[in-house]
What does this fold into?
Amino acid sequence: MSRRRFARIGLAVAAAAAGLGCPARPAPEDPGLVQVETNVDKPEIVAGKPGEVVLQVKISALQPPRAQRPPLNLAVVMDTSGSMDGDPITAAKEAVRDLLAACGRATVRP
It folds into this structure.
């Protein structure tokens, strides 16, 4: 199926839903946790003229307060076959312990 046809079908479904009175999902409020900064090396870029421009993009994210962190369901599956004996299983267990410690004790349930 072509992109254009797929887009038309999507628009038709959206229009049908609107016509049936389906409530629109409210837009989520932006908590402002992600910040994007950009910088270019030239003050002007001339259209139609070949050239090179360096674009610098800096993306930074703040950690949300724990009370606002969405819940996470996480299942850890570990290979315990013979090939994991010794150092491999020890390293895997330590990685899981580190992950659980990063989640915080209040959020971990066995």
DSSP finds two helices and two strands in the chain. Strands lie at 34-40, 55-61. Residues 49 and 102 are 51 Å apart (CA to CA).
